[in-house]
Amino acid sequence: MEQKPTKCIFEFFPKLIGEGKVRKIYASADDKYVLLEATDNISVNDSVLEGIIAKEKGILLTQISKRFFELTKHLVPNAVVNPEEIFNPNGKFNLYIPANCIVMKKLKMFKSELITRNVFTGSITKDYFNGIRTFCDETLPDGLVLSQKFDRAIFTPTDKAPQGEHDKRIDFNQLVEIIKNDGMGGEAEALFLKAYAMRINQALFDICDKAGILFVDMKIEVGMDENGTILVGDEISPDSCRFTFKEDYVCGEKLKSSDKQIARNFYFDHPGETMPQEILDNLIDGYVRIAKAIGIDVEKFGFAA
User: Fold this and answer.
1) Alpha-carbon dihedral of residues 17, 219, 261, 162, nearest 10 degrees?
2) pLDDT per residue over 105-128, tens digit each?
3) Would the pTM count as exceeding 0.90?
4) Strands, DSSP E only, in 33-165?
5) What domains are there in the chain, each with its CATH number?
6) Other CB atoms closer than 10 Å to residue 44's CB: what's the count?
């Protein structure tokens, strides 16, 4: 029997259309789909750490994202597509897709980041302890302590700053204006984005809870397809969300993270120092721990079970 030829998915994505801090984006020849390639780079404070590589981090990010998309697709639609159905419908060849790559419908992205928070941690804590109580139309009560769980998730979106600059928190009216300025709708779409983000947050919170994980917070980007349908068009991973295992959680103390916060914490505590291998290993171990907890066969990708 004649052996099928092999084609790499990159043959169908000839155009590099974007390069972020930890990801490259390619467009298909017909401009209908994008290929997201996650690298092993690490970014902290909106900057890539030059010369610092977390081996196989891109694979873990992609596989965790794929798993979360699969587990939530019946509740919240996303832009992920099956490349075999699109580029190899008759199975004439073997389609090779690197484990750090995912294919999605090409969307017109909203210029905002949708952030939900389930735990009192992160950037809002400094302002809170300085007396501020309202964040993006969400008013927090007095007396919160570090890492306290909120009674309900809160929505704190930001704008989408140019690369290298910090995103800024925005309120609902500012979100409406961003949407209007891009010709993508107005108040109705802003309301939908908030509800959509909260629905994704709840789905992920429930999945993580069953896996013994506290889903701390989430940052995602969404877009609109050619039919006007709003879909998640970004990763859902420990690079963009925060996780802590329930067995490690202590209210009132800094969270023990299993996400990119491991790298952030090192640079907050050791400014100007080079990240040691031990921290890189801890980072990858945290990502592997998340992957295993949500049902990914990590041995398939070369990690210890």
Assistant:
1) 40
2) 999 999 999 999 999 999 999 999
3) yes
4) 33-38, 41-44, 47-53, 94-96, 101-105, 108-109, 112-119, 134-135, 138-139, 149-155, 158-159
5) 110-230+239-275 (3.30.470.20)
6) 18
